[in-house]
Amino acid sequence: MPISRIDVDSKNRSLDIFDITYFRNQYQITDSFFDSGSVVIDNPYIELLAQNYDFLRQNSVLVDLDRKYIYRPDYLSFDIYKTVNLWHMLLFVNNCFFIEEFKLEKVYIPTMGAVKQVMRNYIKDDINVVQEE
Question: Is 6 helix (H, G, I), strand (E, B) or coil?
Fold first, then answer.
């Protein structure tokens, strides 16, 4: 089994524009893990979704959930957005806290335009924070 380093994984995954959980440098290694180092984890993803919940719901299509997607928001994310990285958003928009709750009759699916708008705002806000520092 290959060994994974959080800083390397973070850098590699930050290149995926649709993976907003890794979009910016969230993981910072201050020292070596084995030399009493610390890892700072800042995950703005939940706050981002909470701030945009109403916008995403208003810009969603309500559809019947095909049985093949029960417990598999990642499959639905891939089929709709061509990336599995938005499965968290699908759970959140449908008020599911766990994958096991993703067995609804109908689900809200935010439009790609709405997803892109949230990302544009997130990127703009992130750049403004960096410029202020």
Answer: helix
Question: 47, 48, 24: which is closest to 127 by C-alpha?
Answer: 24
- With CA atoms as reference, report the closest residue to 93 among 111, 116, 75: 111
User: Which residue shows structure tokens 């995950």?
Assistant: 43
pLDDT tens, residue order, the chain (133 aa): 455 555 566 566 656 655 555 444 444 444 454 444 444 444 557 788 889 999 999 999 999 999 999 999 999 999 999 999 899 899 999 999 889 999 999 999 999 999 999 988 888 765 554 445 4
Q: pTM of the prediction?
A: 0.64
For residue 31, the tally of other CB atoms under 10 A from its CB is 10
Which residue do the tokens 């909470």 mark? 50
Residue type for position 108:
Y
The helix (H) or strand (E) run that includes residue 55 is: helix 53-58
